[in-house]
Write a structure and sequence with these properties.
It is a single chain. By secondary structure, the protein is an alpha+beta fold. It has a domain of about 150 residues: TATA-Binding Protein (2-Layer Sandwich). The protein has three helices and six strands, in the order H-E-E-H-E-E-E-E-H. Strands 1-2-6-5-4-3 form a six-stranded antiparallel sheet, covered by helices on one side. The longest helix is centred in the C-terminal third of the chain and has 100 residues.
């Protein structure tokens, strides 16, 4: 019953996810030391650790030095050469929505000013693409892992079913063998009974012969 309930919850989760589309939204939140412009993307099915480590890896790829900051993280002195040779500071944190849904929140200090769509459209759009690509990959990887686990579970169940079928076939063969042995034993019992009847008759006849010889002996004496 418990396993069936878990399966139902998993199916409902996938149905709900199928109705959603990944997108990066603009917002203003408490991050980077104050209420600053930020970008937010929802990531599904992945764990908080997977999201943090994945984004950390991307930031380190841009030479960012990672540290913990104000309940989140800071990638210091990030260099994105496609945008500029100047460094920027990327503040980020992961907020849990539920067990299957997290929000990655990113705010970028370009050096004196926090990135916003009005004043820094190019940088803003570039970071949106980085975050969207990351969200898609992280979500797809998480679902791929779930798919792999589900396939393993299915294969295990199918293997167990095959074993049960083989066991049942073996039991059926045993029954047929037992039936054959029972029939053979019944035939042997019938033959044995017939032979016993014959032997009893032979014994009675032999007793009579013995009695007759005994009487002959007594007559001589």
């Amino acid at each position: 019953m418990k396993k069936g309930f878990i399966v139902i919850l998993a199916l409902l989760s996938f149905q709900a996810f199928a109705q959603k589309k990944l997108k990066v939204e603009e917002d203003k939140m408490n991050i980077g030391g104050g209420k600053n412009p930020c970008l937010v993307v929802t990531i599904y099915e992945a764990t908080e650790d997977d999201i943090n480590s994945g984004w950390k890896s991307i930031m380190k790829g841009y030479s960012g030095k990672i540290s913990t900051k104000d309940g989140g993280h800071l990638a210091d002195n990030v260099v994105i050469k496609d945008l500029s040779n100047n460094t920027c500071d990327v503040y980020y944190k992961v907020d849990k929505v539920n067990d299957h849904e997290f929000k990655l929140i990113v705010s970028v200090n370009l050096g004196g000013a926090f990135m916003n769509p009005s004043d820094h459209a190019t940088q803003n759009n570039y970071f949106k693409k980085i975050m969207l690509d990351f969200a898609q990959k992280t979500t797809n990887d998480a679902i791929a892992d779930q798919l792999k686990d589900a396939q393993k579970a299915l294969s295990k169940l199918q293997s167990a079913q095959t074993s049960l079928e083989k066991e049942q076939d073996g039991l059926k063969r045993d029954i047929e063998n037992y039936k054959g042995k029972i029939k053979s034993a019944e035939d042997e019992i019938a033959t044995n009974s017939t032979e016993q009847s014959k032997k009893k008759s032979e014994i009675e006849a032999q007793k009579k012969i013995l009695d007759a010889i005994t009487k002959k002996k007594e007559a001589v004496n």
